[in-house]
Each structure stands twice: as structure tokens, then as C-alpha cells.
Amino acid sequence: MSYPSMIDSSGRTLGTEEVEAVTRVLQSGMLSAVWGREVRALEREMADLHGVSHAVACSSGTAALHLAVAAVAPDPGDEIITSPISDFGTVAPILAQNAVPVFADVDPDTGNLDPAAVAAAIGPRTRAILGVHLFGAPATGLREVADAAGLPLIEDCAQAWLTRYPDDRLAGTVGTIGCFSLQQWKHITCGDGGLTITDDAALARRMRLFADKGWPREGGVRRHESLGLNYRMTELAGAVARAQLTKLPGVLADRRRTARRLSAALADLPGVRVPADPDRHAWWLFPVVLDPPLTNHEVAAALARAGVPARAGYLDEPLHCAPALVDAPTYGGSRYPMTVPPADRLPTLGWGTRPNAERLITQTLLVIDWNERYTDTHVDQIARAVRAAVTG
């Protein structure tokens, strides 16, 4: 059996609405968001969807995180606490702002940051906490830690469109800034694109300036008020994203329905644990945590033989073990800013330092590809394959 994939139209919701949106922009002759209408409309619609005051569009999810990190304004050598299980796009903006990523360990069941580990990692140079809603599971407890320490919380919602916290607040609205991705593999897409949301007008202005070379575009004066890059979204991407945004509730409803079905089918299977609250999870992927003696590599191999798109560990190595952080130079031949803190605050990196994250990657975490085009037949086939892989 073949499974729908987000790499092509079989697993995407792209259709006539997106074609009409692109045609509308092309016929207008205005493809730049500086003078166009589509991106500004997308920002309003994104803010309204989340019940916040401001949204800022940009060119990628990584760019969205960079806007957020730049807005909270770490000084060189300041620290930002984040997760060792995420895309490198979560960490690159920290380094780009000459700040130091500090990795706290994660919850062994969800892969999200452990609030107690985050609290223990806070030091005199901590400037912010950057939490990741891994696979679409809400990263709970971080707001309380941030508030207790007087720190801003940045939410990486790239995998967590319409994820809900236990109190039903949407992911991205609990932190100081929420960051979203519109990359090809995300719930909705314009190929590449990003959005940030916030209720803080000053932070929104900083992010908008940073995305446009520090140029406020006000009053017709060409004045660059602050350091910024060109992270502007195009009108073509904005128009496609607007069409996709209208489909988002349906995308989540379909993913959650089939995820509930697979969760129920695996509920009595010993050694297999799935997320506990399918109606708040966003199901970017379907994560499974295995208990010994099961191992993720063995089960993933058995699923691959059965044709099920599944992988062991999600990453080949957690971020605190990535060569780019452990020993590679960052700027020129220098490892700055990783060498900036005093000796007693140099970040501890490498294997053996974050045991929960390392165990998930190497032994216990299995991820199954997921999208809104899965049918009950797909789900039932996956359930049978998982049962066969686990029970032999």
C-alpha cells in the first residue's frame, strides 16, 4: 500500500484556491509585499485566528525564529535555553545573534523541554527561553518557569499549528512571541514562509524592522533605524498561505480523527506509548515511545519492510551533539559565541549530557509520517504493521 506524502499533491491540500490566489497576484503585477496587499492581509488573518494584536510575516520558519530572537535583544554572550530535539533552525537564530544556546533536557515521554531542567539551567546571563512544541504536542510548564525568572518565552510552533494547551489556549499565544513555519512539510504551506505573533506592539515593530533591513517605510524617508536583514515574504507566497490558512481547521480535524483511530488501535499494545490527548495535539508526525526491550531502530526497520513511512529517533543526533555546535567554527575560524561565557558557564555539549533526549533519539522514539490525506484503511494498515513489528 502507498501512503499520501507531503512531498507531492497526494498529501497536500493545494488546489484551485491556491491557483486562483497566485493568478490574482500575477495579474495585479505587484509581487512585492512592500507595496502589495496579500501579505498584510495574511498577517491580519493570522492575528485574528490566534486572538492576538500583531502578526509579522517573513520568508521561512527559521526567519520567524530569528525575528523573535532579535526582538528580545540578547547581548553578545547572553544565553537562550532551548531544546536538544528540534530542527537546527531553532538554534541557528540564537547563534546568528551572537547568543549561546543552552540545552535543557526533555521529558522522556513527549520530547518537550522538562520545565524543571529549564529552571535549573537558568543563570545570570539567561535572556530568554525558546520552547519547541515537538511534533505538535503542547510544551507545558514553560510559561510558569519564564515568569518566575522574569524571562520572555518564545514558542517554536513550526510543528504545532492549532496545538492547544490543557487550558485550551492556542500554541503561540502563551509565550511572548509565537513562531510558525509554512515550509513544504508543515500542516499548511507556501513552499517556504514564516509568521510570528505577539500582543506586544514594541516587539512586533522590532520584528517588522528586522525583517526589512531596519527600514520603517514610514513617511517616504529612506532611513535605516536598526540592524535588519531582508526576510520579506513575497506576495505570491502570501497569497498561497492565505488560501492554505482557510483550510487549516479541516487539516487539523482530519489529522486528529485518524490519529485518534491509530491511538485506539495501539492502546492495549504492551511497550508502546502514544500521546495522551489527541484532540489538543497537532500531529505533525505520529510519535510513538517504546519501552525496553523494544528499540526504535528494530521497529522502524520492520515497519519499513511493511511499507510504512516510519523512522527511528527523528534526528540522527540531538542538537547538543551536532558537529556545528560541538566543534565546528561559527564565524570564520572562530567558535564564537560558544566560547564567550566564563569557564564555569561554558555550555556542556556532546553525548552523555542530556540523557533523556539521547535515549529518545537512539532507543525509544519512533515517528510515523502523518498527514490529512490518510484514510481509515491507511491507519488500519499501520496499526497491523506496528503490532506485527512489536510482537514479532
Q: How many H/I helical runs?
A: 12
Radius of gyration: 21 Å
- Proportion of residues in extended strands: 5-15%
CATH architecture of the domain at 9-244: 3-Layer(aba) Sandwich
Query: What would the CATH topology of the domain at 9-244 be?
Result: Aspartate Aminotransferase, domain 2
Look at the structure and give the CATH class of the domain at 9-244.
Alpha Beta
Regions with little confidence, pLDDT below 50 for 5+ residues: none
The helix content is 25-40%
Q: What is the CA-CA span between the terminal residues?
A: 21 Å
Mean pLDDT: 96
* Extended strand count: 11
CA-based shape: globular
Can you say what the CATH homologous superfamily of the domain at 9-244 is?
Type I PLP-dependent aspartate aminotransferase-like (Major domain)
Reported for the largest beta sheet, the result is: 7 strands, mixed
User: Based on helices, strands and strand pairing, what is the structural class?
Assistant: alpha/beta
Order of helices and strands: HHEHEHEHEHEEEHHEEHEHHEH
Q: Biggest sheet, strands in spatial order? A: 1-7-6-5-4-2-3
